[in-house]
Amino acid sequence: MGKVDIISLPIDFDKKKIDGDYRLVTASVMRAKDLAQGLQPKVISNSKKVTTIAIEEIISGEVNMLIGDAAVEAREKAKKLSQKRAVEESRDVEKIPEDLTELEKDLKVYLTEKGERDSKKVIEEIFGESKHSD
Q1: What does the pLDDT profile of the chain (134 residues) look like in tens digits?
Q2: Could you give the maximum distance between any two Cα atoms of the chain, in Å?
Q3: Residue 6 covered by a domain
Q4: Which of 81, 78, 63, 68 is nearest to 27 (CA)?
Q5: What residue numbers bound the domain in which 11 lies?
Q6: Phi, psi of 66 (to 5 degrees)
Q7: Is 128 left (phi over 0), alpha (psi -120 to 50) or beta?
């Protein structure tokens, strides 16, 4: 088995670039998700774990992250974009029932016409054509 580097706790990092342990953890979690989804690491690591690689990337400064007011502004902007997408998606969902109601109307007409034809056939089969001649 090869040598595996393990990140020792507590982790030393530049407090000017990363404004606290919480920010380090949240940034690492977000980056680990990216790595787990297939993004390529920005650092060479002996670790196979995406969480460890993500922490190494954040500490090394290879992954840009926002802190302070810039982070707050970016979070607000992302929140507004998410809300905008949600509104747009809800509008798209609202359009679907209109399309369905048109389809339902067409189906009702078709089924009514088909039902009338089928019911006439059934009546003729049961009673024969003499029913109509009376």
Answers
A1: 445 555 665 677 777 777 788 888 888 898 999 999 999 999 998 888 999 999 999 888 888 877 778 888 988 998 888 888 888 877 765 555 555 666 676 777 777 666 666 666 655 666 665 544 44
A2: 101
A3: yes
A4: 63
A5: 1-65
A6: -95, 145
A7: left
Closest CA to 54 of 30, 75, 37: 30
Which residue carries 């606290």 as its tokens?
A: 20
pTM for this model (two decimals): 0.51
Contact between 45 and 32 (Cβ < 8 Å) = no
Residue 125 forms part of a structural domain: no
Q: Is the peptide bond before 97 cis (omega within 30 degrees of 0)?
A: no
| Contact (Cβ atoms closer than 8 angstroms) between residue 52 and residue 11 | no
In a domain, 45, yes or no: yes
Count of domains forming the chain: 1
CA–CA separation, 54 and 41 (whole Å): 8
Nearest to 55 by CA among 19, 35, 25: 25
Structure tokens at 33: 């998700």
